[in-house]
Amino acid sequence: MPIYEYIAVDKGCSYCSRGFDTLQKFADAPLTTCPKCGASVRRAITRFAACINEPDEEAVALEEKLTGYEKEGRWSHAAELADKSGLQERAMDNYKKAGYNF
Ligand SMILES: [Zn+2]
Questions:
Q1: How many domains does the chain have?
Q2: In this structure, is residue 63 part of a structural domain?
């Protein structure tokens, strides 16, 4: 499951004003409010899946590979790679382009 980071849009409590991580199922709708205080939050960065702390070089290599697949129209390859790397939204996009229906 991907980890999403959210941060308060404007003013929030001590929990959301500094940003918080939450583990969500892929199908879950994104949060719009802080679970503690109800302030509006937006998604900050989608991190790589939990427990993978990849060095930047690898992230760059991954990005190049993904972009390569996408340029070539190899959507299912790109989707699988994105999926494995915790890039769920990207994977979803590519799966759709590959003709999968969810
Ligand atoms: Zn809050």
A1: 2
A2: yes
Q: What is the pLDDT of residue 50?
A: 46
Range of the domain at 84: 56-97
**Total H helices, total E strands in the chain:** 3, 3
pLDDT of amino acid 57: 78
Q: Are residues 61 and 92 in the same domain?
A: yes
Structure-model confidence comparison of residues 101 and 16, the more confident one: 16
Ion ligand 1: residues, Cβ under 5 Å: 12-13, 15-16, 34, 36-37, 39
- Can you list the alpha helix ranges (DSSP code H) found in the chain? 56-72, 75-84, 88-97
How many angstroms is it from 22 CA to the middle of ligand 1?
13
Residue 81 has pLDDT above 90, yes or no: yes
Residue 9 shares a structural domain with residue 35: yes
User: Does a structural domain hold residue 102?
Assistant: no
- The pTM of this model reads 0.44
d(CA 34, ligand 1 centre) in Å:
5
Q: How many Å apart are CA 83 and CA 4, to the nearest integer?
A: 15
